[in-house]
Amino acid sequence: MHHVQKEALEAAASPAPRQRLVIVGNGMSPGRALEKLFEAAPEAYKVTIFNAEPRVNYDRIMLSPVLSGEKTFDQIVIHGDGWYVDHGVTLYKGHRVVAIDRDARTVTSEHGVVEPYDKLIIATGSTPIVLPVPGCKLAGVLTYRDLDDVTAMLLVARSRGHAVVIGGGLLGLEAAIGLREQGMEVSVVHLMPTLMERQLDTPSGLLLAQAIEARGVRVHTGANTREILGTDPGAGPSRVRAVLLDDGTELPADLVVMAVGIRPSAALARDAGLAVNRGIVVGPDMRTSDPDIFALGECAEARGQCFGLVAPLYEMAAIVAAQLAGDATAAFNPSATATKLKVTGINLFSAGDFSEGEDRQEIVLRDAARGVYRRLALKEDRLIGVVLYGDVAHGAWLFDLLKRGADISDLRETMMFGPGAAGGAPLDPTAAVAALPDDAEICGCNGVCKGKIVDTIRAKGLRSLDGVRAHTKASASCGSCTGLVEQVIKLTLGDAYEAASVQPVCGCTALGHDDVRRLIVAKALKSIPAVMQALDWTSSCGCAKCRPALNYYLLAAWPGEYQDDGQSRFINERVHANIQKDGTYSVVPRMWGGVTSAAELRAIADVVDKFAIPTVKVTGGQRIDLLGVRKAQLPAVWADLNAAGLISGAAYAKGLRTVKTCVGSDWCRFGTQDSTGLGVKLEKFLWGSWTPAKVKLAVSGCPRNCAEATCKDVGVICVDSGYDIVFAGAAGLDIKGTEALGHAETEAETIEIIAALVQLYREQGRYLERIYKWAKRVGAAAIKAQVVDDAEKRRALYDRFVVSQHFAQTDPWAERVAGKDAHEFVPIADLALAAEGRR
Amino acid sequence: MTETIWTDVGALDQVPRLGARVVRTPQGCVALFRTVDDRAFALEDRCPHKGGPLSQGIVHGANVTCPLHNWVLSLETGEAQGADAGRAATFPLKVEAGRILVDLSALAGQPVLGKAS
Question: Is the confidence at residue A130, as pLDDT, over 50?
Fold first, then answer.
């Protein structure tokens, strides 16, 4: 009754009552169908969606990058909550539809919601196949289908144990590499003799196996799983322990992922009496045996075939939308599809049919040393199959020839080398794109052709990749066509094209600082050569710009594990003193909070006399600078300073420099708190930490602010009620007052907030980016939210800082007095001395 | 031309990869560099820009970046790279049986090169 009332109200409110469209399932295909429908007939339907998953529509193809850590869930959301609101769509999240009543024209969800429809789309997708071997129901046996699976895998991966992936197809291999990147020991078990046999021929399958093994994943082909073994049930709840193969091999496993195929989810349709074969049977118009009910996506069977790749599924979606908008002629004609493996660094492209046959010819190019393999399958002067491995640059062009069924008799001798080869022109990638006809498909996921991109750029005045993505959807799904799309933009706009705004770290890479940092963690890269190898550095060993940055990023990512690379540090940080214009050095001992004593001053005076140090100066950070020390003298100077309890002041470091203080409540008649004492505590807590750029602090005992805390990276102003913490000031190249961060009631809380702030900066700051620039980039409010408002995040940051400090608080002077890096401080040969000796 | 005189100044292993060591001579300092692929080079330890000690710079490829103002000099030719113009003197060097031999005969009779570092 309730629904009848609601309907009546809606009818009264709008003159032409809209039809009710109900969709079961909220995957990518219905999402695409709705986009197309809202374009074609925005007001025609009132839409209600039931989603068994408790979330919005996301890009399922991109789950592999989420698993490997290269992307986050937020980055793969296609329609955020706002999209549903904007289009007046009612979305029931976490509601599985349990029944369709075709007579009453309603669907019922497991939570009892009954929704009437005029038109219904069934888009229930598919379920992963679970091999019915003994042990397949043990805890720790997963499939790879949705975000929940990825979350579960990531949880197990934390233990860095063993994983076995059953199935060496596209999905299984992406899962295997993703788990490997998460630090697990991974084996792939594949029933067939070569990997991805549905998309690849034998030679390229073998090359792929080599590349996968080179990533540290063991590959077992021709291997059948006999049983999944569990732990001893006597020792708590049984979970997976190993995978037993037919040949008796036992592979240890804390996690088993089954990726052996999918089965269309057709039970709901079958129960409703619709025609079901393997999937839900639909005609070319995508209607099921009930003309008011459509089936769409992996659950649908069209022309006797079920589909799993996104391109034909999106074609289906377009047909459903057109039919719903009133175009009765729209018909689904699946075309050839191309496959790419989404594993960074492995380039693989396959399309069409490349099985061998009497009426077929093939052209093969092999360059084993370069890991290149290309095979073209031909039939009667038409290209019918393409496999490219290693260099896939011509994939789009060849795929276009294949799809158009072009006569290639004139191209036969040169087509292997791409469109540029025919005229002997150099292989300019833009030229290859220029050679493509307007109807050549650029983005396979979203079915966007070159002409559509060019027209949209011109019509909308687009200038950037983001603009093209927003308006055409090209490169907006898996992203593997991004390079092609950029070339189309470049071709259309010439010099007006605004290339990606990410500033590369240096000339050795196209990646920006944030990408490099993210990938260091995601791919567990733990040395500078490993970073350069994995991220395709273009120089053999980097440059003076990227090496110090990488050294810092690795140090920050892997405290205690990464071996600091002195040769990648600027000289000052390598020898722990500041180089001067004449090649001598300056030495600045730490003076905690600017407080010193007669004994320390006496020791300094003695060092100055003993080594005839020419200049002694008080610095701006309340300590003493000894200038003009020769490099060879440094260890002896430090030894004497160490003996008086003085350690390195790190006046050279991208790290904690000074904590400037005023005398505070101990002496000052205005002082409200012990600013000197807090300054000393802060310096003793923070010293030794490496940061993206230098960090200077100050603590003032009252708002008169004699320690000038309001132009520092971090400042504390003591007040009667406690401590006001400020940050992001500058008084160098730029001059900028600080911004408020928060208020603390105790010294301990102050220290915790500041340590958390420094840690967040260590994790997010780009190398050489001072705190005020970092704060400007990410927003002071975002920083405050994490280090002040969210107590849990603050504590986690603080804990990570403490762990890192555990490895950082060693006096570098004392280490060198004890002999570390002794070669730094003496000449390899002294011919001057030898010459004097001869005289 | 002066006659070639090879002087054994030490073992290659005493120079860190992607690093440098200094040879002191009566005419000033000579810097020995070692690349990532174990090639070695000898240059006067003095940047043509403002006299910075090149031995204290960061070595990358077959280049060194001066620690004072980031000039980049080729270890092979001593020439400043990029937009900068200038040259640091280079000295013939060979590695035999793991020992570095340098021909410093060009220094004879030269005024003092740079300050000792």
Answer: yes
